[in-house]
């Protein structure tokens, strides 16, 4: 005879196993459903991000496609499909103005290099003073410097123009480069101050024990460690100066001194026919240096922004 208690226990165990198997199956089903939902959300998110990216770069793609179209067809077709390829916009645009387009590229490059040199030297020195030196009213001067970030450039452009005009510097690069040598870009000073404050002061103390003064500490200890902040300054200065139209329009009056933005404006004629195809072609050419600088410098740019706490 079988023991009724044993049978009862077996039945209970079988029921428990069945319940366990049933619970595990439900758990797997819930996990599969959750994983499926996560995958669906990820796919939808990526589709939306790709659509947003295409929407943002559509003007650039349209300009690139339009640079290969005849001028009379550019505004008749808003699509991105080329029916024919016309390279004459690039050859005509290069020589369409009073000087070859290479002249304006060289002018822009000279201006950009001067501004980069001025910003790196002057802003790093000012940042070292604010971050490491002790002097009276340092906090007040630092606050005033930060307030200048909120001051619109248009407020000072008139008195600045009168001053530079009396010096006879209009139609030269001096009014555009000289302010950079005086650490007037407070944003870069603030960025470098934040970076230097993150460096251990023990490095300064060790250098001072070895007999270094402030100049040697700055040039041999601080500057080599500031590569990310300097790279960020170089990249932003390059992009902002290369694309600056307003300041060049104010101070540069002769076509031989024109920078790239002013040269591109010269393709448009409000009284006659504008050469849109050539302008779009030279716009693509002028974007290449900016694209290359950002492509090779983005690693330093991200590191510089991350290490200075500026987001």
TrEMBL record:
Gene Ontology terms: cellular component: plasma membrane
Residue ranges of domain ABC transmembrane type-1 in the record: 105-297
Top-rank taxon: Bacteria
Main localization (coarse): membrane
Topology with respect to the bilayer: Multi-pass membrane protein
Protein name: Carbohydrate ABC transporter permease
UniProt-listed SUPFAM superfamilies: MetI-like
Membrane-crossing segments per the record: 47-65, 104-128, 140-164, 176-196, 217-242, 276-296
Keyword Membrane: yes
Location(s) in or outside the cell: Cell membrane
Keywords annotated in UniProt: Cell membrane, Membrane, Transmembrane, Transmembrane helix, Transport
PROSITE patterns xrefs: ABC_TM1
The keyword Transmembrane appears for this protein: yes
Single biological process term from Gene Ontology: transmembrane transport
Homology family: Belongs to the binding-protein-dependent transport system permease family.
Pfam family, one: BPD_transp_1
């Amino acid at each position: 005879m079988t023991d009724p208690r044993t049978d009862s226990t077996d039945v209970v165990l079988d029921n428990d196993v069945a319940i366990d198997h049933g619970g595990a199956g439900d758990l797997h089903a819930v996990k599969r459903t959750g994983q499926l939902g996560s995958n669906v959300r990820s796919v939808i998110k990526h589709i939306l991000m790709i659509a947003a990216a295409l929407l943002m770069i559509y003007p650039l793609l349209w300009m690139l496609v339009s640079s290969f179209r005849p001028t009379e067809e550019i505004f008749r077709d808003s699509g991105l499909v080329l029916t024919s390829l016309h390279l004459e916009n690039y050859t005509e645009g290069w020589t369409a103005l009073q000087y070859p387009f290479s002249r304006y590229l060289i002018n822009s490059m000279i201006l950009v290099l001067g501004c980069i040199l001025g910003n790196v030297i002057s802003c790093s020195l000012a940042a070292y003073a604010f971050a490491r030196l002790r002097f009276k009213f340092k906090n007040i001067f630092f606050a005033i410097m930060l307030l200048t970030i909120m001051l619109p450039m248009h407020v000072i452009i008139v008195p600045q123009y009168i001053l530079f005009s009396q010096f006879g510097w209009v139609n030269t690069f001096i009014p555009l480069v000289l302010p950079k040598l005086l650490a007037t870009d407070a944003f870069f000073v603030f960025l470098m101050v934040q970076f230097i404050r993150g460096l251990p002061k023990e490095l300064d103390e060790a250098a001072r024990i070895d007999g270094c003064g402030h100049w040697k500490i700055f040039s041999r200890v601080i500057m080599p460690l500031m590569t990310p902040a300097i790279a960020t300054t170089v990249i932003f200065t390059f992009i902002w100066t290369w694309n600056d139209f307003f300041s060049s329009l104010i101070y540069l009056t002769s076509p031989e001194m024109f920078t790239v933005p002013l040269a591109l404006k010269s393709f448009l004629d409000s009284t006659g026919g504008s050469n849109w195809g050539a302008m779009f072609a030279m716009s693509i050419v002028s974007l290449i240096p900016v694209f290359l600088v950002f492509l090779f410098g983005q690693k330093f740019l991200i590191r510089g922004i991350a290490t200075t706490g500026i987001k």
